[in-house]
């Protein structure tokens, strides 16, 4: 076998998820999201909006961490990292400027609480907090307003998994939800 063939085989194995010296960060679970799974078929609440149907299910089944008056906190079904939370109004509204004062105030309050709880449970080194407005702005589900609260650690999901061989530690969503829900009352 030629050296070129060995390189091709090694490259093919690395694409298949076989460990290699680059320490690749594999996230195949996100392919379902990229392919459109669990996304609404249209802009209305009855078009299959997961943020409208989640509150009608049990907290465990829907991955809801906390329920407020106008908004609730839920685990991201397709997280960028462990502990990735979303703060959503119950009402099906797409634009931040269209949210009521009560929804805006509770989103801010729950975001702060989420940061406190995640800090206590996971000890992150930082956070990404924000919302994407509209499909062109990067919103995966543009029809229903939601704010991301993403705990971050140096080297978690940037180029360091490839360059430095650092990997994110996976966590089952149900385990993360349980830990955060349990800590919510005492640390929010």
Short description:
With 188 residues, the chain is α+β, with helices and mostly antiparallel strands.
Q: How many β-strands, per DSSP?
A: 5
CATH superfamily: HIT-like
CATH topology-level name: HIT family, subunit A
Order of helices and strands: HHHHEEEHEEHH
Second rung of CATH, namely the architecture: 2-Layer Sandwich
Question: How much beta, percentage-wise?
Answer: 5-15%
Structural class assignment? alpha+beta
How many structurally independent domains?
1
Q: Would you tell me the overall average pLDDT?
A: 81
Number of helices: 7
Strand order of the largest sheet: 1-2-3-5-4
CATH C-level: Alpha Beta
Radius of gyration, taken over Cα atoms and rounded to an integer in Å: 19 Å
């Amino acid at each position: 076998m030629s050296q070129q063939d060995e390189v091709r085989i090694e490259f093919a194995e690395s694409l298949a998820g076989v460990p290699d010296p680059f320490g690749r960060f594999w996230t195949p679970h996100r392919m379902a999201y990229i392919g459109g799974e669990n996304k609404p078929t249209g802009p209305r609440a009855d078009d299959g909006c997961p943020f409208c149907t989640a509150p009608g299910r049990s907290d465990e089944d829907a991955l809801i961490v906390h329920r407020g008056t106008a908004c609730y906190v839920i685990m991201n079904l397709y997280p960028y990292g462990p502990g990735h939370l979303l703060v959503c109004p119950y009402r099906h509204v797409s634009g931040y400027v269209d949210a009521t004062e009560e929804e805006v105030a509770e989103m801010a309050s729950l975001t702060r609480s989420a940061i406190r709880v995640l800090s206590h449970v996971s000890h992150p080194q930082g956070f990404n907090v924000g919302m994407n407005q509209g499909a062109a702005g990067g919103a995966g589900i543009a029809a229903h307003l939601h704010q991301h609260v993403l705990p971050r650690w140096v080297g978690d999901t940037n180029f360091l998994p490839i360059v430095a061989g650092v990997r994110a530690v996976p966590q089952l969503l149900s385990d993360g939800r349980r830990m955060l829900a349990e800590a919510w009352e005492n640390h929010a």
